[in-house]
Amino acid sequence: xxxTDISATALLLMSILLATVARAExxxxxxxxxGKAQAAxxxxxxxxxxxxxxxxxxxxxxxxxxYADNVHDLFFAQGVVASQDRLFQMELWKRAGQxxxxxxxxxxxxxxxxxxxxxxxxxDMQAEYxxxxxxxxAILTAFTDGINAYIASLGAPGGSAMPxxxxxxxxxxxxxxxxxxxxxxxxxxxxxxARRERAAARALTELGPxxxxxxxxxxxxxxxxxxxxxxxxxxxPQLLENLVGSDRRIEFAxxxxxxxxxxxxxxxxxxxGASLLANDPHRVLALPSLRYMVHLVAPGWNVIGAGEPGLxxxxxxxxxxxxxxxxxxxxxxxxxxxxxxxxSNPLEYRSASGWEKMSTRSxxxxxxxxxxxxxxxxxxxxxxxxxxxxxxxxxxxxxxxxPGTAGxxxxxxxxxxxxxxxxxxxxxxxxxxxxNIVYADRAGNIGEHSVGLAPIRHWTGLLPVPGxxxxxxxxxxxxxxxxxxxxxxxxxxxSANQKMxxxxxxxxxxxxxxxxxxxxxxxxxxxxxSRARHKLTIADMEAMQSDVVSLAARELQQIVRTSxxxxxxxxxxxxxQWDGALTRESxxxxxxxxxxxxxxxxxxRRFSDSHGERYQELTPDVVLxxxxxxxxxxFGDQPLAARDALLLEAYRAARADLAHRLGPDPHLxxxxxxxxxxxxxxxxxxxxxxxLLDPRALSRPGDGETVNATGYDESPQSDSWQQIxxxxxxxxxxxxDWDRSVAVNSPGQSGQPGSRHYDDxxxxxxxxxxxxxxxxxxxxxxxxVDRLLLRP
Length: 792
What we know:
The chain is an alpha+beta fold. The protein is built from 24 helices and 28 strands.
């Protein structure tokens, strides 16, 4: 069911669906069916805690523009407004960070909760608040007071009913505290590289150093450096499976690739003569959207863009003078330590000075449908113990134990920056997640700073290390030593998670980056426009963000062209003439994707007959490099012939698979029939709830290596082609005239089923279209459809 307009017919149908779910779950949602669970977005609300009246103008795309007379009321109102749209999502986010999901999900969430409690920040709170911005604690207090004021209003006389999602899920939101916004799990999934350390250890022990090295595209090139005295066997994937960030999907059962693109282009290359800045961060695709857009206006504040609904401020966007956006910068911010346990006392572990006692902490967990449990958390000097077997313990040392490492909160300082020097001062506060942050300002400057808390190591950090000594961090790299540029001679800066450190960079900050395909495509488009003397426009930026030309596919074409054995195979002529665009309609795009996966499967088996199907580290760039330069380690004495035979077998298997799925006529094949996207609500596993909560599935172009990134599970074992990550939010900012800026969120601004903004932006997002990002008061007024006064 589409929810682009709440007509009488739609309300009637919704009432029937809600009644059906209510009967199945024993929930009375009749008030929700009447629309009473919808937040009031027009009229007046009296909200205790405000100091003066706040004006909230929602535009036709659901973006709230908040005008307040003072900073306290601005963030208090942001808490109220975000809660109106996203309270259920915010409550899940908070509980994921608190380690309290098992209270509402039952025993299945307990281990995830245990890990979240183990990773909570327990350091100096004064240093923690001061790290982000001087007024952080005051802002967080006002923001959470606003959330609490809205929660208190639910069910009050004249107020809204409890949001539908809480009624269906069978629990209520509880109070927020300022420290709840210091959630370490919010950005945990964007820090690395504990899982890759474990994967490298397994590859090294199962395959040996020669084959293991081929699984990873380390850059700069480096050998795996295991400690000669450390046993790395038995570190299975299951050890870390419940160590997940707050963005992982949370499901309420009936009985969760990070990437991004950004670029900033100087006025010399644009049609308007003013800088353009574009950003489309790639994260999990969720319903509601991971991103929440807002415009915040008060004395000293006038910032618009997107952030996460459970945090105050704006994470990426622009204020009156500067614009910024970010992509993940692959700093290595985690290390796994293998601690040797005392055979006579499992609470003691070996250190350089002898046996040392672990610190412990007792944590109580309430569990839905089960008795409460008390769990003892253990910590070594390196961090929380994630696993132990009586002989060894695995401890995680990560930057989240340092003050100032709650994800995105340093944006409170960026929001108030007015020039490059102030922006650079804010960069010194940005610790997690590590980002390549591009910049443009009204004075015509552009720049970039790759930032994050970077541990200083004397080893690579690519494998677990012994905890007894010799592998300790030596502080953190000063932000000024991290890569950055200001007004580069090229006239632009672009990043797409590729390696941003320069050649011969003297610091060991990371070796694993995204394949350069997206970046190279963006760079080639900008440089081609410059050579053609074409001045770039907003429309050009939109086309770039929707670009689906695959440079990886073109690499495969080139490899095939060098192989005489494949030239005579039926259908390959069409493949070689294909332009490499992964459009929805393209049959050759479908063939390429199926062919590449078959190649990955066969290469995996060549790594190890007994374990090959388990290797998921074979990324497209690694695979294509192995095919382009086949050697005897993988392909035997006649590597070219063996490579060609593998390609031919994989090609035939891919065609057979496509014929089975889409029919025998290749002219009827299309990538979009296979590659789809389904936004799913956390509650959609409840009986008959999917029809109410989930929008229709979409046919999608692209893949994980195109600028319009639509990544799916690329592991050789997978049989799913459904998009699982990508750019749910896009922005293109015109520094010369902010009102010419455009953006889109997906599927909509509201998380409340039945709201007209629940999925109204989905058609725009799917088509690569945008709406105006109104900024001036006149532009906001002309786009306003709902006016809400928040009164003390």
